[in-house]
Amino acid sequence: MNNQVDIRKTGGQILVDALIANGTKTIYCVPGESFLPVIDALYVAQEKIQTIVCRHESGAGNMAEAYGKLTGEPGVFFVTRGPGATNGSIAVHTARQDSTPMILFIGQVERSSCGREAWQEIDYKKMFGDIAKWVDQIDSVDKLPEMISRAYSVATSGRPGPVVLALPEDMLAETSLVGDVNVYKSAGAAPLVADIAKVTELIINAKRPMMILGGGGWDSLASKQISDFAERFNLPIVSAFRRQDIVDNQHPNYVGEAGLGMNPKLSNRIIQADLILCVGARLGETTTNGYTLLNIPKPKQALIHVHADPNELGRVYQADIPINSTPKNFAAILSSLDVTPSGDSQKLLFLSSARADYLATLTTVPSTKGVNLSEVMHCLRKILPPDSIVTNGAGNYTLWVQRFYQYRGLRTQLAPTSGTMGYGLPAAIAAKLLFPKRTVICFAGDGCFLMTGQELATAVLYGANIIVIVVNNNMYGSIRMHQERHYPGNVWATCLNNPNFVELAKSYGAYGECILETKDFQGAFERALASNLPALIELQTDPNLLTPQLTVQTLREASV
After folding, report:
1. Which residues are bridge partners to 515 per DSSP?
2. Is residue 499 a part of any domain in this protein?
3. Listed residue (309, 100, 320, 72) closest to 189, CA to CA
4. What DSSP element (H or E) covers 472?
5. Which CATH number characterizes residue 518's domain?
6. Could you give phi then psi for residue 457, rounded to 5 degrees?
7. Element of type H or E holding 304
8. DSSP 8-state secondary structure symbol assigned to residue 235
9. Which of 266, 275, 430, 538 is least crowded, fewest Cβ atoms below 10 Å from its Cβ?
């Protein structure tokens, strides 16, 4: 006699069960009627998976992107069709450029209406085809387990990135018999033994080698293995743009970031290097200072390029040794090498002088008016616990954060290589909810903050006690810089009329305080921490200061 129970579940239930089976503990969303069966399934499973409801789809997407960065597992978010999907697309672009595992689920019109330009209908394969690793629509409830399993594998394997799946609302309401779903397993390439022998030989024989680290797919073990290798072989470590946390910035081999506002001495060293070992980074426009640090297509420096995506190898630069490998697999092989390099005085001098140049960049710079951001960062370097997480979006204010702060370990920095404004606040909320005992600080310009400032309400709702530091110069600072450089004195479309940020924060139920002088910062920061609330500290800064080295005045004088 067959006693097997016929267990049928809705598509929404099958989907949520698959998320849980694959280890997802949190999803982010703005609810929509197009995926109500999923919302109902999340209600039933609320003890197993947390649902964070956001105030805008870009906020939900940025939180999912931060989750993916922090955990190495896909950040999952749900949006409704049409406007919801277009709002969420900004985070998909960030996940693509930042190599972050992500899965976006979009409620779609009913299957019978597809192709008729039904209400809010979009062809998502066309919309996301160029920025996602895989885009598809699940038209059969029976295929949900298969396609969700594939989504996790695609998002995490090779070069991590975003996957987009559309969910017709009638499919989600249908029922089906379901089987067990196994936890996904990501796949990644590893280097060949012959390649490692060549790498070792090139490094040992180099006199001015440099290592550039970037991309996604790192973990704490790989970070330690690669930094130990650098120390053993006397390699200066350069981080790619906004990847400063791959290794501890206090490590004796760390020599700075190749990114916006790059130290000219560092860029010159990269140009003068006789060997570049690049692990994980694509060597994109920002990291290479507009593709000027290495000749295209064949750099004059010997180039070892290690990347998880074979399509990135040879895409711009012809490497002497291209290696298709994940950073973790490459670092593990390096750590197992039984090689003891001999001391080389020229190599040691190259490293020590590069490190000295980096340490010199941490010296504060003067500011004649308003709060001095370099001194604020110096203060935070002294008082923050090493595991603190610092987030930011985009804008010239980030140049102070990236130059004067020292990130102490992997995933203490959340910053978009895509240059996305509004990223920092949602990312900070995701970080605090994941790690409630760690200090989480968001830096945002006045323009950047108001891109996603409504998510402060989300922080209050869920008790994510972050500290948001709003750098207020009443303008779009980075655009003003370019404007003054190319059209000096013609100030147009870059001025901002801002709200009272302190009162805005308080209206959400957060703590708020405004600082006019640098000496008042530490006290305000301590009061924000003690408030046991999400907090906002406004720093009023000098609009004449465009970067730590550049002012409006000097640009205008140069144009005369």
Report:
1. 539
2. yes
3. 309
4. strand 467-472
5. 3.40.50.970
6. -65, -35
7. strand 302-307
8. P
9. 275
| Domain membership of residue 25 as a residue range | 8-177
Same domain, 86 and 148: yes
Distance CA 521, CA 221 (A): 36
Examine residue 186 and state whether it is found in any structural domain, yes or no: no
Same domain, 15 and 164: yes
Q: Do residue 328 and residue 460 come from a single domain?
A: no
pLDDT digits (tens, 9 = 90+) for 385-443: 999 999 999 999 999 999 999 999 999 999 999 999 999 999 999 999 999 999 999 99
| Residue type (1 letter), 353 | S
Q: Output DSSP code: residue 183.
A: P
Domain count, the chain: 3
Residue 253 shares a structural domain with residue 357:
yes
The DSSP 8-state label assigned to residue 406 in this structure reads: -
Using a cut of 0.90, tell me whether the model's pTM lies above it: yes
Q: Which one of 301, 334, 361 terminates a domain?
A: 361
Q: What is the DSSP letter of 46?
A: T
Q: How far is CA 342 from CA 111, 203, 423, in A?
A: 67, 12, 46
**In the sheet that 467-472 helps form, which strands lie side by side, from edge to edge?**
413-414, 389-392, 440-445, 467-472, 535-540, 511-515
Measured on CA atoms in the order 488, 491, 494, 499, is the torsion positive or negative?
positive
Longest dimension (CA), the chain: 95
Q: How far is CA 144 from the centre of its chain?
A: 29
pLDDT at 6 over 70: no
Of the candidates 506, 533, 447, 429, the residue with the CA atom closest to the CA atom of residue 59:
429
pLDDT one-digit tens code per residue, 50-97: 999 999 999 999 999 999 999 999 999 999 999 999 999 999 999 999
Looking at the structure, do residues 224 and 127 belong to the same domain, yes or no?
Answer: no
- Is 60 exceeded by the pLDDT of residue 484? yes
Residues 161 and 208 in one domain: no
Considering only CA atoms, which of 133, 127, 163 is closest in space to residue 148?
163
Alpha-carbon separation of residue 46 from 55, 217, 334, 335, 433 (angstroms): 20, 29, 43, 42, 16
Q: Burial letters for 57-81: b for 16+ Cβ neighbours within 10 Å, e otherwise?
A: bbbbbbbbbbbbbbbbbbbbbbbbb
* Same domain membership, residue 265 and residue 377: no
Exposure of 322 in the CB half-sphere (CA atoms within 13 A): 15
Pair (31, 155) in one structural domain: yes
4 — pLDDT class (breaks 50, 70, 90): very low
